[in-house]
Amino acid sequence: MSNEYRHILVAVDLTRDSHKVLERAMHIADRNHAKLSIMHTLEPLGFAYGGDIPMDLTSIQDQLDEHAKQRLAEIADDHVPRENQHVMVGMPDTEIHRFADDQKVDLIVVGSHGRHGFALLLGSTSTGVLHGAKCDVLAVRVGTGEDGEESAE
Asked: What gap in Å lies between CA 22 and CA 13, rounded to an integer?
């Protein structure tokens, strides 16, 4: 079995730290001549509100999906072709695993830091990604300045 990565998935939360995570993955992809995919996962609105809202959330979900696609394109267009940019709706760790399995991803790159921004991703999500992944996972340290302080969002 080869030690080279052939397909790298970058999972981002669309904050400004997403660029740093993508840059780290790009260096690894370049060294390995690997395909690079990037994704963001939106949790379904009905799930976030326990399904107790007596209204159709479809149009709002569609707007959130469109906004996420635009934001992902702003981050990734210079580095990742549009066909390799993905916005999913679901639980982040589940969708990341599903994509990685379906697309034969051999490295998942996620961001990691303290209390906000990527804390949502590395909190329960990154733990879930790490524990459920069938491939390597790289957590990129983000969100701290030169003095070790958390960066403001």
From this structure: 11
| Host H or E run for residue 96 | helix 92-102
Chain Cα centroid distance, residue 10 = 5
pLDDT in tens, 27-44: 999 999 999 999 999 988
Cβ proximity of 150 and 115 under 8 Å: yes
Give me the helix-helix angle, 18-32 and 58-76, nearest 10°.
Answer: 60
pLDDT at 151: 43
Task: Identify which of 5, 14, 74 has the alpha carbon closest to the alpha carbon of residue 39.
Answer: 14
CA atoms within 13 A on the CB side of 86: 19
| 18, 75 contact by CB (below 8 A) | yes
Instruction: Find out whether 118 and 141 touch, Cβ atoms under 8 Å.
Output: no
pTM for the predicted model, two decimal places: 0.81
